[in-house]
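Q: Hi! First time doing this. I have a protein sequence and I read that you can turn it into a structure. Is that right? Here it is:
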Amino acid sequence: MEAVIEVKKLRREYISKKGWLGRNKEVIPAVDGVSFTVKKGEIFGLLGQNGAGKTTTIKMMITLLAPTDGTCKVLGYNTFGEEKQIRSRINFIFGGEMGVYRRLSARDNLRYFANLYHIDMNVAKERIEELLDLVELKEKADLLVETYSKGMIQRLQIARGLLNDPEILFMDEPTIGLDPVGAKMLRDIIRKQKEQGRTVVLTTHYMYEADELCDRIAIMNKGKLIALDTPAQIKESTHHAETLEEAYIHLVEGLK
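A: Yes, that's right. Below is the predicted 3D structure, encoded as C-alpha cells:
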C-alpha cells in the first residue's frame, strides 16, 4: 500500500519565557524527532496522554504549524511550502464544539462551508443531504445548532469535514466529552470512512477506542515516539498485555 503521509525526524519547538520581563528563555520540544508513515486507506492512531505531542503533530500534518526541523509530506507535498496543493484534498475535525456556527441550522452550516470550499451548488445540495443522512441528523437538520447535544454537534462536524470529499480526514480527540452511545455512533462513522477507501488519522488518549478502531498506532510520550505497530503487536510485545492500556502503562513506566 502506498504511503500518503511521510513524517521524518519531525520536530516542533516552543520558546518559554521566564524570569524578569521574560529575559530567561527555555526551548521546549513539543515534538522531538518523530518518524512514521501512514498508508492509504488505513485508520492510523496517535496515542498519548495530554501533552504528549499528538495535537502538535497533527497540526503540522494539516499545514497549520510549520516544523522546526525534519520533513512532513502529505499526498507527496511538503506541509510547509506546498500547503496549497494539500489543503483542498484533506480536512480536519477537532474535538469539542468550536467547528460549527451555533446560531445556524445544521443544513445552513453545511451550505456555508460548501460555499467556502467552492463546491458546485448542485453537487453541494446532493452531498449535504447524503452527509446529513450519514450522521443521522436529517430529521433535525433545520434546527439551530445551539439546541444540539455535544454528540449531535460532533456528528455535524464530521459532516462538515467530509463536505469536500477529502482523501485524508484528520480527527483530534473526536469522541472527547461524548456519552458512550454518542461515542459508539462516531466510531461507526469512522469505520465507514475506511470502508469507502478514505484514510483517517486520529488522536486520542482513550486506549480502548484506539484498540477498537486503528489498523496501526503510534504511541507518543513527551514528544517522542515510543511504539509504532498494530494494536495486537504492541500488546504482544509488552509481556502479552491483555489491553492496550496495560501495554501503554508498561511502555511509559519503562522510560522512568
